[in-house]
Amino acid sequence: MKGVGAVDKGEFQIEAHPAQEFGPDPLTVRDTDHYTNEYVKGFVEKWDELIDWKKRYASEGSFFIDLLRSYGVKSVLDVATGTGFHSVRLIEEGFDTVSVDGSAEMLAKAFENGLAYGGHILRVVHADWRWLNKDVHGQFDAVVCLGNSFTHLFSEQDRRKALAEFYAVLKHDGILILDQRNYDAILDNGFSGKHTYYYCGEEVTAEPEYIDEGLARFRYRFPDNSQYHLNMFPLRKDYTRRLLQEVGFQRVETYGDFQETFKADEPDFLIHVAEKRYIGAEERSTRYSTAVNVARDYYNSDDADNFYYSIWGGEDIHIGLYERADEDIAIASRRTVERMAAKIGVSSSTRVLDIGSGYGGAARYLAKTFGCRVTCLNLSEVENDRNRRFTAEQGLTDLIEVVDGSFEDLPFDDNEFDVVWSQDAMLHSGDRVRVLQEVVRVLKPKGEFVFTDPMAADDCDKAALKPILDRLHLDSMGSPGFYRAELGRLGLARIEFEDHSEQIATHYGRVLEETERRHSEISGKVSESYLTRMKIGLKNWVEGGRAGNLTWGIFHARA
């Protein structure tokens, strides 16, 4: 059978460029080892048309170079060398670079490109990631796995093994930089690649021909009308982050098209930066992710502090359970605390951790009512100062400790608390999976987790949430289905959700009414621009609640 470019020479056939072979049904080809058959010579020779080195260089800028230098990196293992773009760039910038790829065709092209672009002799290693340390010796300051390459691994076992090999080849304080397409956006909203940063070739198209949760089949078309395909696994962002953490990486930051903050659907590519360096409890309490830092800066502002204390309910700054539409916010908010407390077993010997504790109203209620010890963890130093002051005024400092910190990296030992408590806080995290992992880690066997969180309804149109997400600088919200699935995956049992979705519109409507009624009173403490934005935001919450796009209630689960 002739391949692409086969030439007849009498009775002989010389196959210049063998064709890709996917068999009779390409959609069933979901095998890690098949990728070496996909990078046939004809495809590899056209790969640089897809990238366009000059335009890629301009669009990427110095992002990776600056990032590596910020970590003091000197040696780099490029495990997805491809045709050599990043290996050549790294060598030119002075990094001691070793170039690895699983495709011999790609490595041959990369070696050729190294000579063509600056006369560099690349140190190339042909290796399978799953057995990387068998072929690559020594340790490196950084491993880079770029070009959406990690999505060639189709089984979780392969992904875990490859990440473990990356981890092992790194020095104790090394970093892994891994990128991927934004498959969440493609799976949820369809494909809209901009070719702005990664695939810069003007006359080349790279788009999905088919996609489901287990396969992304991309078609690549070139100016000469040739076309090739790659079958890849569509990695979701949070799944990739979870794998990185479970393999042992201590901290993971994610960028969207080289930006620290981004909306979920905006970037074409996501870049994960995973740190191997061990982070102790004391340091974890002062290291915040981008999303947490945004929330911290907001709640530390004078405007936010004065508004929430004056309008939202004083000690309890969370959604209330209203028995009447015109009920006082503070009374309804305290009723939520009482309802949650009634669900858990609390005595004087119980140790409670309140994550996202705000002004500490729930902690003081629990300590006064049951005599239990409560640790309050919160990201806002301003709110924490109020918490400590209120706690001292009520004579509860012996029972309540207030800790500055992030719930994405809890500065506590494993199995330390009988109860973890949280009210309307986890929506501010950019990595709720990580928060839940940390909660389960610090819970004692048979411990309890009780929490509320403003959520997207399971069946809501995500586009309808955009005004709310933009206001909060978030890229997503949790949902009842998300929390049930993740809590179950983490081993918690008897997961119960008490639905109070009707309270969303009621509560935010009451806060809006009070803001408007007391506008002149609080305008001396809170800026007009803040109040204007707050009123718009509150209206969005009310509309979202009434439309059924938002939900809220009380989750209760047991370890």
How many helices? 22
Radius of gyration, rounded? 27 Å
CATH topology of the largest domain: Rossmann fold
CATH superfamily of the largest domain: Vaccinia Virus protein VP39
- The mean pLDDT is 89
Q: Label the structural class.
A: alpha/beta
Largest sheet: 7 strands, mixed
Unreliable stretches, pLDDT < 50, 5 or more residues?
1-16
Give the DSSP E fraction (strand runs of 2 or more residues): 15-25%
The total count of strands amounts to 21
Q: Give the N-terminus to C-terminus distance in angstroms.
A: 60 Å
Describe the structure.
With 559 residues, the chain is an alpha/beta fold. A hairpin with a 2-residue loop joins strand 8 (205-212) and strand 9 (215-221). It folds into 2 domains: 34-279, 3-Layer(aba) Sandwich (Rossmann fold), CATH 3.40.50.150; 290-558, 3-Layer(aba) Sandwich (Rossmann fold). The longest helix is centred in the C-terminal third of the chain and has 19 residues, at 528-546. A 7-stranded mixed β-sheet has the order 5-4-3-6-7-12-11, with helices on both faces. A 7-stranded mixed β-sheet has the order 15-14-13-16-17-21-19, with helices on both faces. Strands 8-9-10 form a 3-stranded antiparallel β-sheet, with no helix packed on it. It has 22 helices and 21 strands. Helix content is 39%, strand content 22%. Helix 14 (329-341) crosses helix 15 (361-370) and helix 20 (502-517) packs antiparallel against helix 22. The model is unreliable at 1-16 (pLDDT under 50).
